[in-house]
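Collaborator request, handled under Task 6.
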Amino acid sequence: MLTFAEEFLLLAHDEKTGDFADVGFSVMSAALAGAALMDLALLNRIDMDTRRLVLIDRGETGEPVLDFCLARIGVSADLSTAEDWVDELSRHGEALRDMALDRLVARGILKRENKRFLWVFNTRVYPMTDDRETVEVKRRLSNILFSDEIPDPRDTFIIALADGSDLLSRVFNPDEVDRRRERIKGIVRLDMLGQVVCDYVRDTLNAPLIPPPGL
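Structure tokens returned to the collaborator:
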């Protein structure tokens, strides 16, 4: 099964260009940090109530993004809430993105290519090798957003993450997304961690832009 970080990147992926939707470095970093926390929660590695996030099991998961985050939670007792940890882990946004992309390449879903820009500069793109996972992510979310189907915890969270980062309106028809706004709000409220992460990512989206350190 793909991690939330991988699903988020696939949702943001443009199959035509091999690049990703420009949601901003800070927003992407916060989204990937929140995605890792949600995976760890579903794997019973961490637990969270309204006041604190608690480490339950520090054993490795075998997923580089999750183990990277788990290791940091295991050695830092100063941070307590989920919001604190989204903030802390998002400082490693470049590393989280690279690890998630490495896994997508290793799974045979994406491949790396260097593309010449303006005949001088090279930029890295990720053409699709196997589009089944991307189609599946978008199909699942579409079925939930535009129906009254009750989502499972994974879909609840990925919708919260995509909504907080303003990605839903980039992937689906923005007018249709606006018409389903109350439905989206209801879905986001179904999960406490999803709500916390969604709020943090949205606050990051609305904050002054901070340039990336050079991806």
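The cover message to the collaborator said: "DSSP finds eleven helices and four strands in the chain. The two ends are 27 Å apart (CA to CA). Please let us know whether this matches your experimental observations."
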